[in-house]
Amino acid sequence: MADPADALLEVDGIETCYGQSQVLFGLSLRVRRGEMVSLMGRNGMGKTTTIRSIMGLTPARSGAIRLVGQEVRRLASYRIAQLGVGLVPEGRQIFPNLTVRENLVAASGNRLGVSDPWTLDKIHALFPRLAERGGNMGNLLSGGEQQMLAIGRALMTNPRLLILDEATEGLAPLIREEIWNCLSMLKARGQSILVIDKNVGHLARICDRHFIIERGRTVWSGTSEQLMAEPDLQHRYLGI
Known about the structure:
240 residues; alpha/beta; Rossmann fold; six-stranded mixed beta sheet; four-stranded antiparallel beta sheet; 10 helices; 35% helix; globular
């Protein structure tokens, strides 16, 4: 049984609505320290809404969201970010009128006092293309470069938890491999990660555990070995 002291993110029974339309119905998930966890499900099942609820962008109306034991469900999104959650949003949402370097340093900081914090040099070592494009405006980057920049920007906040919504969506195959290799390296460094993506094979290869949601509810959770051993489960909930 997992040690409760290892809990980093705990989402318990949250319900979230857009106006009168309810999207999440008692959804729960866990991310432990140093763990990489995936959130899977077909389109429209509530994955992005779950992320938005965790970040306080679309607050859950009930349930609990705890970060290292602290209840954060009612906190403003900027406070949740300051407590150590770095988001790589769907669509990247980089600042188009800032340079690559300005995007990276705009929200950089080490509020948690990490002993070996991320710096520009370390981001450039992780993604050499960002060093090459340092003076380019954000809107002049390719989709793959924008995703690298979005990941680098989140890492520059030195987060406890890194969240990626659609980590490789719309990227060329070679760039996808580069992103997966990056995530594997981050996991090896001990970075806690919650990731949404459609590539079950890659998720099963590098994630520790998985949560599948259907119509706003958690319908399955387990390890990669358990996931790959249940092809019927994948077909039922993931369309594989």
